[in-house]
Amino acid sequence: MIANLLLLLTAAVWGFGFVAQSMGMDHLSPFMFNGLRFLIGAVSLLPLLWFFANKKTLLVGNKKSLILASISAGSVLFFAASLQQVGLQFTSAANAGFITGLYIVIVPVLGLILKHQTGANTWLGCAIAVFGLYFLSIKDDMSIGYGDLLQLVGAVFWAVHILIIDHFAKKHSPILLSHLQFIFCGLLSIGVSMMIETTVIGNIGLAWAALAYSGIVSVGVGYTLQVVAQKNAHPAHVAIILSLETVFAAIGGILILGETLEPRALLGCSLMLTGILVSQIPLRYFVKSWGQTKRTQIQSD
Length: 301
Known about the structure:
Elements: H1 2-24, H2 30-44, H3 46-54, H4 63-87, H5 93-100, H6 103-111, H7 120-137, H8 146-168, H9 174-196, H10 201-206, H11 208-230, H12 235-242, H13 245-255, H14 263-280, H15 283-300
Helix pairs in contact: 1-5, 1-11, 1-12, 1-13, 2-9, 2-11, 4-8, 4-9, 5-8, 5-13, 6-7, 6-8, 7-14
């Protein structure tokens, strides 16, 4: 129960992170905001790195492999985060949260390329989620909003990022890999910002709250809570609870940013969340639960 509560807190932290990212762009351009928040996030992981290094539990592995992993993960993270941040200029935090959450469905689908096994629940969940996406983002003329489209493409990059981390995390410490990819992504974002954006130094101070939350809380605190909680939680529970970040993104957008969701959008969000949850729960659990319910009814009769 404690582990599940910590995971729920993590989902809330990440969900409200969409609100912070949206507010941060009141003062900073997308690439500069991303660059600063990822560098802040990298710094926030230093105490955790020191702790594991001091306990001699920090797996480094081959240095060349570590550099390759950091550059690969950092590059994909840059594209995923950039699409998400730019997309937030043209869509709501609620939409961004739910559409980004589709990476949970996309991961096993992309896993087919790597010959990963994919259960029937994934295909069912994917179908429900796509149906929900139609109600959330597709307009009457069958077009999709620019911001929602960027979030959808970004969700594919988030899925690819997870697969990269999954591959390299077996060879290196996930925390060390996260730290290095954050640095690479942050520097790359600032480099792009210096080429195409104009940043007023004073605006960085105005965006301090959004930067602090996005960097320290979303990355530092959120990542730490996830690591601690996953030690005592079932993997299926982890995926399901963390997927609730999409719900918290919607709640934050409504309460803090004053966003509204029309009935059609609410239906789409509900279907997308259902699809995400179904994709994470093997169908045998539904069959098992139904069988237990029937046995209980028979015994009662």
